[in-house]
Design a protein that fits this description.
Elements lengths: L1 H12 L41 E5 L8 E6 L12 H14 L7 H5 L2 H13 L4 E5 L2 H18 L12 E6 L4 H12 L3 E6 L4 H10 L4 E4 L8 E5 L14 H5 L7 E5 L9 E5 L1 H10 L1 H4 L6 H16 L2 H17 L7 E7 L1 H13 L2 E2 L2 E2 L9 E6 L6 H14 L8 H5 L7
Parallel strand pairs: 2-11, 4-5, 4-6, 6-7, 7-8
Antiparallel strand pairs: 1-2, 3-9, 8-9, 10-13, 12-13
Helix pairs in contact: 1-9, 2-11, 4-11, 5-6, 5-9, 12-14, 13-14
Length: about 425
């Protein structure tokens, strides 16, 4: 049903087959020594570059006279530490020297080069999809997809206002990311879809809402019983999970059950951008109606070359994924917290309590900031820490000891470390 709707929508916006003439910008050929992706070197284990951006210096804006203080970062999203990898540095630097920032325009004009196409091809293959479309940010990826999705009802209603049952019903988790929320607000404001929010991770509530929905076209983030379009935001598991870095869908072997996978290039990839892995028809619809994609300048060429290199390195250096999950298991063993992700939220309550805990961690030499409103509810402020491949067991021990001093309910049980740990299947 969905592919038919997309084809009908494309026919409305592309009567003259404009998308057939999507510009295939080809950059001047360079020699092997100048080629950004030639001779990328990978390694069997960590190098000194891996901790380059984990060990930083920070100034206290309230006490500049105190000077800079060394900090160990536990607050970034560079899970595989690829942002400082020699191959990523080399690719971005060579691209900048050979092409500058690349052709500067939107993707539909001249911004979409052969390097952009190579990155899209690699990401589509990784997620086992026909096609992929990259955006300047992960935020833009979600809003571009939702913008295109919302247009389907008006495009297929023969020039009249869509009837209630013709609108798309979008079911969204109550704690979805701001990029999804803003995209939903956009389609809701234009009366192109009905947005229904279900309680966080409450499948019973979702089932009830789905069963009572009169809409024929339903979009949600889970599907077994109802057979609707299945879209996931895979921002934090791309490259981190799965034998080949294909994310959470590879872990569970459900790539064929996911219609569209939205992800980020700003986290484990260590670069910047977003992507939408989908069918060829969905890609055409997003190119034709995804406003944040259409009206944004394409990502600069050095960034795209760096992304290409990072994806290639992550596939070969699988030990990085193993190291991340080893840190997760060590944290779990030391604290008794049964964490299952490199992202760990420690809810402390009020904003004041979170700021006090964050200050304590900064004083102890850990860059671990408080997460406060509007990101979270006023009574659910927290410390949000992230574990990376280049953190060590000793880093985790020191972190846990410091946390136990500022979070009184925080348990510490280090006995399990010596006994050896069983690590989860990637």
């Amino acid at each position: 049903m969905w592919e038919d709707l997309v084809l009908r929508s494309i026919a409305k916006i592309d009567r003259n087959d404009f998308l057939r003439y999507f510009p295939l910008v080809c950059l001047p050929k360079v020699g092997p020594s100048e080629d950004p992706l030639a001779g990328l070197e990978t390694f069997d284990g960590p190098g000194p570059w891996d901790r380059t951006l984990l060990e930083i210096e920070v100034e206290n804006p309230m006490d500049l006279a105190a000077g800079r203080k060394k900090m160990l970062v536990f607050s970034g999203n560079d899970y595989l530490n690829l942002s400082s990898h020699p191959a990523v540095r080399q690719a971005a630097a060579k691209a900048a020297l050979a092409y500058g920032m690349g052709p500067r325009a939107s993707s539909l004009i001249t911004g979409h080069t052969d390097y952009h196409r190579l990155l899209e091809s690699n990401l589509a293959e990784m997620h086992k999809k026909e096609a992929c479309i990259i955006t300047p940010t992960g935020f833009a990826a979600n809003t571009a997809f939702l913008s295109a999705l919302g247009s389907i009802a008006s495009l297929t209603s023969a020039g009249r206002r869509p009837a209630k049952h013709e609108k798309i019903a979008i079911f969204s988790d109550g704690l979805n990311h701001a990029s999804i929320i803003d995209g939903l607000r956009m389609v809701d404001r234009h009366q192109e879809a009905d947005v229904i929010v279900y309680r966080h991770n409450d499948m019973g509530h979702l089932d009830e809402l789905l069963s009572n929905s009169p809409a024929e076209r339903k979009l949600v983030q889970l599907r077994k019983k109802h057979g609707f379009l299945f879209v996931i935001d895979d921002a934090h598991t791309t490259l981190v999970c799965g034998k080949h870095g294909g994310g959470i869908t590879e872990v569970y072997g459900i790539e064929d059950q996911i219609d569209i996978c939205v992800g980020s290039l700003s986290k484990a990839t260590g670069c910047m951008g977003g992507f939408i892995a989908c069918s060829k028809n969905w890609k055409k619809l997003i190119q034709g109606k995804g406003r944040p994609y259409i009206f944004s300048t394409a990502s600069p060429l050095p960034v795209v070359a760096g992304c290409c290199a990072a994806v290639m390195v992550a596939k070969k250096e699988s030990w990085r994924r193993e190291a991340v999950w080893r840190r997760v298991q060590e944290f779990s063993a030391m604290t008794g917290h049964q964490v299952s992700s490199p992202i760990i939220s420690l809810v402390v309550g009020t904003e004041e309590a979170a700021l006090r805990a964050s200050k304590h961690m900064l004083d102890c030499g850990f860059h671990l900031t408080a997460i406060r409103p509007p990101a979270v509810a006023p009574d659910a402020c927290r410390l949000r820490l992230t574990l990376t491949a280049s953190h060590t067991t000793e880093d985790i021990r020191r972190l846990v000891a410091a946390l136990s001093q500022c979070i009184h309910s925080f348990p510490v049980t280090t006995d399990h470390i010596a006994a050896g740990l069983q690590f989860p299947k990637l």
